[in-house]
């Protein structure tokens, strides 16, 4: 009889009910027996496996006997002072070893198992373009095995409180008590225009600036109400021609028109490499600041890997 076919009725049995058959099969198998099988296979002997698992050779032998009942195959044949696996055991080892590795990777809360784990860092597209190159280099230096994923921000507080994402980096303000944050950096506000804008040749022409068409950035969050109020007091008569939540759209519009906009200076430094943009000097505006923070669920700090990633990101800025 072909021994490779013996596993079919034991592990791969299919029924018209589909998936429930898998659970029925697994319920009838003590997964500890598979660990013992792997130990005997890898260490090529019952005595050696017993030492590794801190069990008696008798307990190992009894477990092998139980496996022989499940799988109609001797699995291991005595050879000298050790054992050698049968062809069926070799076939079985291929799948069991992969399965145990997957389980170890999933349960790796201490980060000692060198397999990939995914860490999700949600950002807006513009913030991601600004900070993720720095974050990627820092994390890969300390945790080269980690896989990073950058999902969008939809409902920030819900994403964090429901553990739908590990981290969020933005200038938002959270009221949920389970969400904690640390400021990564503080940015100054600047007034921008396109290269060649006539205002660049004028010195402190406040009236001309007020009369120019402005693009208004609409950041979300109550923590910006004070900033918006102060900017409004600086430019009480400015003419708003366009509003947008998308800072990329604003930069593109300014670069292709005579409109002006107020944005954080780091975004100006980034976007000026893509579009012909210039800064208009306005000292009182340049004193205004905005914070960009890393946000996370406070219970995530129980995870040593995620805790370490947060520290790495904070130290990168």
Automatic annotation (TrEMBL):
Single GO MF annotation: DNA-binding transcription factor activity
Signal sequence interval, chain numbering: none
Family note: Belongs to the LysR transcriptional regulatory family.
Protein name per UniProt: LysR family transcriptional regulator
PROSITE patterns: HTH_LYSR
PANTHER family on file: HTH-TYPE TRANSCRIPTIONAL REGULATOR LEUO-RELATED (PTHR30118), LYSR FAMILY TRANSCRIPTIONAL REGULATOR (PTHR30118:SF10)
Pfam family, one: HTH_1
SUPFAM superfamilies attached to this UniProt entry: Periplasmic binding protein-like II, Winged helix' DNA-binding domain
Domain HTH lysR-type: 29-86
Assigned keywords, A-Z: DNA-binding, Transcription, Transcription regulation
